## 1
Amino acid sequence: MTTFNIGNLWYAQYTLPFMRQYAERVGAELCIEEEFPSWFQYGAMPHWIMVDSIKRFAAQDRYETGLFLDLDQLVTPSCPDVFNLIGDGAGVVADMGIPQVDGPFEDWCQEWFGELPQRGAYFNAGLLVISRNAARRLLSVLTAPYPDGYLPDNHYLNLKLTKREPVTWLPLEFNWLAPQYADPEKHHIIHFVGGMKSMLPEFTARLKSPVHIAGL
């Protein structure tokens, strides 16, 4: 289970405790990447650290399944074990803002890679569950150079993953976009993108009330 805190981001104090609780509850180990590896080739763009981390996950032999989360994801006490939901492929959640492959995404794929993406749903790469075997099968296409621009890692993984691997589309509850009536009893992982991060102090304070702690 991996998240990324490049630059000691302020909201880590609110999300990391819940990630740690979740990891302990499901028997996972939590890795917090806090700096770019010495070989990281992509400048100061933190987006590509997830792609690089997937490549390193593919190279190891200790873990069979990895869960990669953006740091602005809040894993609530209701979240079940996601590691056993994907089989030998990958697990993703449809993006609530861009739920389907659209024209701008297709144009991006054509511009940078000269190919079109698979039609259908478009996922938010803030959450990715992937088997080690699937990560290893993807190694041949997880290669630099990577383009910069709007949503580069999100677009890139949508282009490369869904055309090559069996994908399990997890329910929206596993990557629910705040503040769309976020409910910690029903929504297992809540994504506080952009300015919504300002909601984290108040939201996590409510989760620490005795009624929620009893559910841990």
Note: The CA atoms of residues 176 and 190 lie 5 Å apart.
## 2
Amino acid sequence: MPVIITPENYEEWMNPEIKFDAIKHLLKPYAGKMIEHPVSTELNNAQNKKLDLDAPIAPETPAQAKFVFAP
């Protein structure tokens, strides 16, 4: 399960100087609404640098990758 960090907590979460015990309070269930839609399987490759890989696409196969995001 991915961690969903809100913008006001980005700096704290990404700070390598902070010990995990000091930021584990940020690990909590996401309370907002989430939706899902099929996305390109190219999203699974970290070498792909395109910005629109999370854009909705028409499902191509039953095993089509899905991406869940918070609107």
Note: The longest helix spans residues 10-14.
## 3
Amino acid sequence: MDIDAIREHCLSFPHASEKVQWGSALCFKVDGKLFAVAALDVSPTCLSFKCSPESFVELCERPNVIPAPYLARAQWVALETPNALGNDELRELLCEAYRLVWERLPKKRQEALAGGAAKSAKKAAKSAKRVRPTGATKRKTLGRRG
């Protein structure tokens, strides 16, 4: 996967954002918490991401996949080459990275983020005005029994 495909995939997750940090590292975050980092310049590693403890052990046994510098203790791996993993597998692992970080957010924060999207949708629906056909008027009903 190239950097554009990685970027598009990571930003497709709810509440995901990107920020260039540390000079030339494109960081993908959810609520300010990192889940993946892509190198924009020539670097010993091209992509790092969080993974489960099981995936960490398995991935580190593969060629061109190493424990991520500075982040290995938190089960992060780094790819030394862009083709170290297949595109489909990489997409799944990035989804898992996002999910792992999302699940570590406090429940109240998860609810606030999830509720914020629902509240804005409800607010937009309420503010939408009903349009009446031309010539339609409001009818008054009298309390007649019939």
Note: The CA atoms of residues 51 and 100 lie 7 Å apart.
## 4
Amino acid sequence: MSALPLAIAAGLSIWISLVIGEPLTVAVAAFAFLVIAMLADLFLWKWIGLHRCKSLRSRQASIFAGFVCVIILVSVSLTHWPLRFAYRLSRPSFDQIARSLQGGRKFEKPLRAGFFFIEKAEIYDLNGKVCLWTNIDPAGRTGFTQCPPDDVQFNLWSMIELDDDWQFVSED
């Protein structure tokens, strides 16, 4: 088995976690990417298979890389570590925007908060929580909200607890 299709699948899985974030979508996408990578490996075996590796060391490296890619695919779908890591790096921007909103500032245009593109920043009318929406689809918004994990007052489809102050929510 070649590691190339698995590496592409792992990279796409990380990207989906960062862009979409919604847990079920990430898990389904990671599984689909794994299946597609394995099928690609079967169809492309003649050109990228292990038999193309000239030495034992390169075969071992390819097998090891394949296992690492599978571990990445599984870990992304179970722990959402790319989203959590990007959030940690973006947290100062989130806090700054939240303070601005609480101080009365309005954000009329989309903005960038660290690694994330915020389509709408607001204090939510229904519960008074700071919300940084990354997707404002009328069927259900997705984004970050500043509230403790036990006080998330939204009609939730899913939620990822990020820390004691911020949560990633998908509304139903």
Note: The mean pLDDT is 84.
